[in-house]
Amino acid sequence: MEASVILPILKKKLAFLSGGKDRRSGLILTIPLCLEQTNMDELSVTLDYLLSIPSEKCKARGFTVIVDGRKSQWNVVKTVVLMLQVIFFLGGSGSGLIFMFEFV
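Above: the chain sequence. Below: its structure as tokens.
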């Protein structure tokens, strides 16, 4: 999949790879949810594209996923977390996710 094909969706910045790495040298994927309704189909396409970018060596180190749901509703955050479980566990990427929640 080429970026030019999904450029309008990418411009919405539904998710992004910041370029940062965690302690394990795994890539950091950030999903900033907002007050507007998040289109789950567009988010899924964005995640598919972003997760296809890193090399196999980088993918083997895993990902740290930050879901920033401070400006969103809990049901949207829950849907995104379930989507991530499908992508990472059932999708066969071999990467595990550790979910940590902080409520303020």
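The chain has one domain: 7-90.
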